[in-house]
Amino acid sequence: MNFEAARLPQLAQLALWAAEHALPAFFLLLALAWGASWAGWCVWRRAQVRRHTRAVSHRPSIAWRVAVGLVISLGSAAVFAALALQLGAGTGLSQVDQALTDALRASVAPWTQQLFAVLTHLGDPATLTLLGLGIALVLVMHGQRAMALGWVLALAGNGLLNPTLKQVFGRARPLQAQQFVQATGLSFPSGHSSGAVVAYGMLAYLALKLLAPRWQLPALLAAASLVVTVGASRVFLRVHFSSDVLAGFASGAAWLALCITALELVLWWRAGRS
Fold it and tell me: pLDDT tens-digit profile of 26-38?
């Protein structure tokens, strides 16, 4: 028996437990996301204070930011690759995915599914397209053309990347026999999840760059809440397997970190010329 087969019963039991305690598990994920957001904001504020209270050149600062961005991008890509390598019928990942989906069908109340059927539209392509156009217009009106271009390229790039990845892996969606929402097309990675990471993650980044400090933490907490909620909704509604959502988070985070890193370099270069 290989290592994957040996640990499968424990993973399957964990999946069943998660399904039986779906809402508490969702709120636990929210709490973890809030904690990570708060920790990230503290690091950001400390770096900003240090930057403004010391006579430090921009070069070490931009080098540090680029390094962090590349580490996050490569780490997220590695997570995506690890999930992709486990795809296929009969693998431990597919069995755990199916066990969780089947258990959710029996354990999640209809009102919970109906609630998530509404919340999942926060990650719809149409919603994110309208959000993209609106934010881009606001940024241009306030003279933030570089930010507007970075914002548009981030959303548009993910809009091309996700369908490409879906075609590469060609994973079918879970069988759907419920009334609240239907989804067509391929499953891996989740487009709603990657789109939420990129769109709301970019909004959090813009908040850190453009808003007063008192609004930054609330913006980060709101962005984290939206990402977790959209991703969880796809699993609750059984239109995606849990690994589809995790892969969507990973691919979205890799692309988001790459876009922010590139935008930071552009802003640094423009500041050096002015």
Answer: 999 999 999 999 9
CATH number at residue 198: 1.20.144
Question: How many domains does the chain fold into?
Answer: 1
Report whether 45 contacts 213 (CB < 8 A): yes
Output the pTM of the full model: 0.90
Residue type, 6: A
d(CA 247, CA 195): 12
CA–CA separation, 28 vs 158, rounded Å? 28
- Answer yes or no: is 243 within a domain: yes
For 230-270, the DSSP string reads HHHHHHHTTSS-HHHHHHHHHHHHHHHHHHHHHHHHHHHHH
Give CA torsion, residues 121, 19, 98, 250, to 10 deg: 50
Rounded Cα distance, 191 and 244, in Å: 9
CA torsion, ordered 18, 19, 20, 24, to nearest 10 deg: 60
CB neighbours of 30 closer than 8 A, spacing ≥ 6? 224, 225, 228, 229
Secondary structure class of 69 (helix, strand, coil)? helix
Angle between helices 92-107 and 3-20 (to 10 degrees): 20
